[in-house]
Amino acid sequence: MDRFTPDDRTDRPVLGAIRGTAGTLIVDGGASPAHLAAFVAELVAHDRPPIVGIALTHWHWDHSFGSAALDVPVIASEQTAAGVAVQAGYSWDEAAIRQRVDDGLELAFSLPHLLEEFTEDQRTSLRIVVPQITFAESHQVDLGDTTVELRWVGGDHAYDSIVIWEPEDRVLFLGDALYQCLWGDPVYLTVAGTRALLERLAPFDPAFALESHDPDVADAATYAMRLDELRRACDLVEQDGDDALRLAPDHGGEWFVENVEQLLSAPR
Ligand SMILES: [Zn+2]
């Protein structure tokens, strides 16, 4: 497994590369062709096996707008492909993006990142690749000595989120699945969405887990703690309602308190 670390200047997420004897599968298309091309240059410099495909974790622009850098199939869930297709139908000049922000179709959060990641010329001539290989709930990619599994998990961040699982080294790419819904002010998590997500993640026991906007790779213990904190935040909110925020600092650290806050911010 190779990894390109995230860069929060333009919200570039982690890019991954899972290599087997039959080829290399790229995890996420990246924020722009320049982003993906920079990763591919690193892989070439390190003599990695030929790239056989790009798998998308969800449709958000920072994970899907770079796919055109490579002439390989893009693999995604049907829901992700539909989400990318909507984006491919939009104009990407600055005025059009600003209009969509006003109309509630684009996050205000994304605007400065989109302006920073691309020049106006690059953005307006961008070829957004709609995934050609799609699946409903799960899909396998045979890389020879390992078979990678793509499995839908959903969650509050994006309804279409999948995880990407490499079973030999037990590496789990989580994309943005554990993150909050950004389409609210304030941003929020729901108890139901979080519990359903935790249930769908239960079959996986990673030795390494990667979240797309976290520069660190979590080991098994850190990942288990992360999920446990989400579970306990749901418990506290269900037991104590609005009181949970006052009680939260007694039950966990800064991130735990943030989860409780976001669970309490869910539209009711
Ligand atoms: Zn996202």
Protein architecture, described:
- The protein is 36% helix and 20% strand.
- The chain contains ten helices and twelve strands.
- The chain has a six-stranded mixed sheet with strand order 1-2-3-4-5-6.
- Strand 7 (138-142) and strand 8 (147-152) form a beta hairpin.
- Helix 8 crosses helix 10 (254-264).
- The structure holds zinc ion (ZN).
- The site of zinc ion has 5 residues, from loops.
- The site of zinc ion (ZN) has 5 residues, from loops.
Quick summary:
This protein is α/β, with parallel strands linked by helices. It has a domain at 2-89 and 128-188 and 204-220: Ribonuclease Z/Hydroxyacylglutathione hydrolase-like (Metallo-beta-lactamase, Chain A, 4-Layer Sandwich). Helices cover 36% and strands 20% of the residues.
Indicate the topology.
Layout: E1 2-4, E2 15-20, E3 23-27, H1 33-45, E4 51-55, H2 61-64, E5 74-77, H3 78-88, H4 94-102, H5 110-117, H6 120-124, E6 133-135, E7 138-142, E8 147-152, E9 162-166, E10 171-175, H7 191-201, E11 208-211, E12 217-219, H8 220-240, H9 244-247, H10 254-264
Parallel strand pairs: 3-4, 4-5, 5-6, 10-11
Antiparallel strand pairs: 1-2, 2-3, 7-8, 8-9, 9-10, 11-12
